[in-house]
Amino acid sequence: MSSLDPFLSRIHIAYFSMEIAVRSEMHTYSGGLGILAGDMARSCADLELPVVFVTLLSRAGYFRQVIAADGQQTEQPDWWEPESWCKPLDAMVAVEIERKPVWIRPWLYIHTCPHGHQIPILLLDTDLDQNGAEERKLTNYLYGGDDTYRLKQEIILGIGGIRILRALGFDLHLYHLNEGHAALLTLELLNRWRIPPAEPTAREFSYDLVEVRNRCVFTTHTPVDAGQDRFPYELFERLLPGFVERDALKQLAGDDRVNMTRLALNLAGYVNGVARRHAETTAHMFPGYRIHAVTNGVHAGTWTHDAFAQLYTAHFPQWQHEPEILVRALQLPEDEVWRCHQSAKSDLIRHVRESVGVGLDSDAPILGFARRMTGYKRPLLLFEDLDRLVDLAARWPFQVVLAGKAHPRDADGKAAIRQLHALARQLRGKITCVFLPGYDMRVAKALVAGSDIWLNTPLPPLEASGTSGMKAAFNGVLNLSVLDGWWIEACIDGVTGWPIGRDGDSAEGHATALYDQLDRAVLPLFYTNPEQWRTMMKQAIGNIGYYFNSQRMMRRYATEAYLR
After folding, report:
1. Cis amide prior to 461 (ω within 30 degrees)
2. Distance of alpha carbon 165 from alpha carbon 181, whole angstroms
3. Which pLDDT value is given to residue 200?
4. What is the dihedral of CA 264, 266, 267, 270, to 10 degrees?
């Protein structure tokens, strides 16, 4: 019996994502997009949804972050061994790139949920004897290389992925695109439903757009124009000559360049943003399209610290399958909640000591900040007024733990990491500030559970959703965040956490608003009213955990996007 036989008859939905965070040892993700895909896979297994996941193998990962003493980030390949976790399947398909066949073989990873249900994840690989040296490297580096390398990867994911599924025997009715990287699968579907010309001598074909749209769901994550994948038509036609009619493609993907987001918007019957505000922003960017909102969620069982998981199981045995039961979190004993938090905090303190050799104070609050290091995340906002920050710490001592990778070509992001290290040296003896290298699932789990306050400072409206604060809330960690992305929906000032400024405020005032909240609300409450702090921890668990979870998210996708 084939490894796929148990899945072929019951699965009819395919989910495509350039990256997916299956487990920390498999370096097939770079950040939030992949973490979301992994949480979706875990919830699909929990809920027994008929979905197969398709991604790239990414043998060399995104990159392994190395931080020098001065904070300079350098990148090294982050190799992993697929055979340790996956099984190669006896199937290959080819896609023609530059009139030359590129062969693709899938590896199979099977995720098993706590009650035993399984879902398949296919990882596409071109490192095969049948390919030339250049083609063998195409699935090595996640988001690596230039436009040509990137477009070839998207051909492999979208066109190669759909052909692999057919070759393996899947009978699929719906394709879910996680961001525009897999948008070329819509062109493969177009060719499947190509309508010949009415006149035998005519050369142009038309396409059954309705049939394609009925089969495609598109989740967009990018709230900025610059973040969309665009490729010159000359490059597209060199790599995929004659794949579709050029005039038809220009109508679907844009006149000047092949815009993957616009292509997906035009060929998906259901389109959604990843938070209510993000859906509004996307609708303004692309007028004329109906953009639904399915706010992201996180997988409760994955991101909850073991101590909290045991506490929840004792009080709410079905909480992992139905996180909405956590709405009753106010019933939890406050001393037990605090004991669990102290266990998670101790684990973070130990991780920091082992990673960078710095000791943290278990009695002082820890501000956690961990995300991709790039301009709009504003990692330096907390340090905008050092005099005020030092004065705050003198009266209300606190510690700061940071982590995050800058894209290899993001000079400003790398500069921010260097500056954070310089600031840590400058503040030594006044504020303990540490930067953890190698941000991945393992580091994230320690940070979101062990911090006391989760800080998020994006420049609105550029935060599509954000999910790290959701993970923190499952562990009773209180959010202090700019009102953007998901936090607009979750923030109840003084109950679930605190806002930085008000919705619509000028971004120039956010640093002052951040200091004001720390000075007048957050830090005094931690030190002078521990009972109220612990009540807020339970409010965060109950008001955030019950809703901002991937079980609710996938139930919404199933009923609103998949069962159209």
Report:
1. yes
2. 17
3. 56
4. 80
How far apart are the C-alpha atoms of 253 and 249, rounded to whole Å? 6
Separation of alpha carbons 7 and 163, rounded Å: 17
Q: Are 472 and 486 in contact (CB under 8 A)?
A: no
Q: How far apart are CA 66 and CA 431, in angstroms?
A: 24
Q: Do domains 5-66+74-296+554-562 and 301-548 have the same CATH topology?
A: yes
Give the closest residue to 32 by CA, choosing from 386, 420, 396, 458.
Answer: 458
Amino acid 58: pLDDT: 98
Instruction: Read off the pLDDT of residues 157-193 as tens digits, 9 standing for 90 and up.
Output: 999 999 999 999 999 999 999 999 999 999 999 999 8
pLDDT (0 to 100) of residue 194: 81
The CATH code of domain 5-66+74-296+554-562 reads 3.40.50.2000
CA dihedral 440→443→444→450, nearest 10 degrees, is: 180
Q: Mean pLDDT across the stretch 194-220?
A: 80
Residues in CB range of 459: below 8 A, 6 or more apart: 375, 376, 377, 378, 482, 484, 507
CB 145 within 8 A of CB 137: no
Give percent of the chain with pLDDT exceeding 70: 98
- Closest among 259, 273, 7, 277 to 118, alpha carbons compared: 7
Domain 301-548, classified CATH 3.40.50.2000, yes or no: yes
Instruction: Give residue-wise pLDDT tens across range 354-384.
Output: 999 999 999 999 999 999 999 999 999 999 9
- Around 487, how many Cα atoms within 13 Å sit in the side-chain half-sphere? 33
Q: How many residues belong to the chain? A: 564
Q: Which residues contact 505 (CB under 8 A, 6 or more apart)?
A: 513
Residue-level pLDDT at 447: 98
C-alpha angle 454/460/461, rounded to 5°? 120
For the chain, how many helices (H) and strands (E)? 23, 22
Q: Which two tokens stand for residue 162?
A: 């759909």
Angle at 267 between CA 261 and CA 272, to 5 degrees: 60
Task: Provide the pairing of β-strand 497-500 with 478-482.
Answer: parallel
Degrees (nearest 5) of the Cα angle 271, 231, 194? 60
- Give the pairing of strands 13-17 and 174-178: parallel
Rounded distance between C-alpha atoms, residue 478 and residue 480, angstroms: 7
**Segments making up each domain of the chain, as ranges:** 5-66+74-296+554-562, 301-548
pLDDT at 228 over 90: no
Picking from 448, 474, 495, the residue whose alpha carbon sits closest to that of residue 546 is 474
Residue whose C-alpha is closest to residue 441's, from 177, 182, 62, 178: 62
Q: Is the pTM of this model over 0.90?
A: yes
What pLDDT is attached to residue 199?
62
pLDDT tens per residue, range 42-84? 999 999 999 999 999 999 999 999 999 999 999 999 999 999 9
| Both tokens assigned to 172 | 């699929």
Q: Coil, strand, or helix at residue 236?
A: helix
Contact 105, 138 (CB under 8 A): no
Give the pLDDT confidence score for residue 3 in this predicted structure. 86
SS3 content of the chain, % helix, strand, coil (to 5): 45, 20, 35
